[in-house]
Amino acid sequence: MNNIQNQDAQFTQYPNQQLKADDEIDLRELFAVIWQGKWLIIAITAVFAIGAVIFAIMQPNIYKSEALLAPASEEQGGGLSALAGQFGGLASMAGINLGGGGGVDKTQMAIEVMKSRRFTSQFIQRHKILPDLMAVDKWNMVDNSISYDDELYSLSTNTWLREVNAPFKPEPSMQEAYKVFTKIVSVSSDKDTGMVMVSVEHLSPAVAQQWVTWLIEDINQVMKERDVDEANRSSEFLTKQIALTNVADIRSILYKLIEEQAKTIMFAEVRDEYVFKTIDPALIPEEKAGPKRALICVLGTLLGGMLAVMLVLIRHFVRKED
């Protein structure tokens, strides 16, 4: 009886030491359980490691082509900017943007246009790249050709064969194509330098390089056509206003505005690189950009090891409670 009382007194006096001892016993128990189940842990980890290696090897190489661009739109703004302060109100009535301080930056607008659904859909349809976007199976290095998935697309008959549920159709819609396109195409700008980087990832390095080149050409052409159309409409409006007024000062102002619109049209017609100048053109990449096979193998092995340890511990404590 005295011994029991002494033990209770010791526990009451040193509870922290008793809890610490229990914690140490629990840790030793955990390590003992893990050691007892080491062969199961090794086996599961090995299975995951082998699976990760096989998965990594089966992944096709991805090639990335990119181009560095510089904004070229500022060069055309001199004359219009000079008139912005004097004739801004009249120009606004005509629907003309004279490049004053409150407008949207043309470079940023071009970037957003490149990311838009409309531009992407027109790009895919214009260059007929839907099979290369949605049905590629692999790239053949020997003859630089592309093989398509037979279950999705038939190259010989140029028909789509994929099986989908309504409302989807065998031929992918532009909405589906847009989702895939935005995953492999990147357009970004550097806030410090103003430079723009356009990149494309694809199984074929030649296709990646070609798409980057087409993207730059198309965005320059689209932005050029927008400005030319706007300048032509503005010129037509101003010409009508000249015919309706007899005030010499107003007619003089309108003629100056028409002159600036003519300069805009002339500038657009003589420049192919209307919005972006190519500083570093896209090249056919020789080295792959992905996948990171070593990283896949390491992560797969670590995942297998952690799951194996958890399985061994859970099994032990389930048996212990039973």
From TrEMBL:
Residues in Polysaccharide chain length determinant N-terminal domain copies: 23-125
Cell location: Cell membrane
Family matches, as InterPro entries: Bact_polysacc_biosynth/exp, GNVR, LPS_length_determ_N
Coiled coil: none
Entry superkingdom: Bacteria
TM segment ranges: 39-58, 294-318
Membrane topology: Multi-pass membrane protein
UniProt cross-references to Pfam families, sorted A to Z: GNVR, Wzz
Keyword Cytoplasm: no
Record's GO cellular component terms: plasma membrane
GO MF annotation: an example: protein tyrosine kinase activity
Keyword NADP in annotation: no
Keywords assigned: Cell membrane, Membrane, Transmembrane, Transmembrane helix
Domain Tyrosine-protein kinase G-rich: 277-316
PANTHER family associated with the record: FERRIC ENTEROBACTIN TRANSPORT PROTEIN FEPE, TYROSINE-PROTEIN KINASE
This protein's name: Chain length determinant protein
Species the sequence originates in: Shewanella benthica KT99
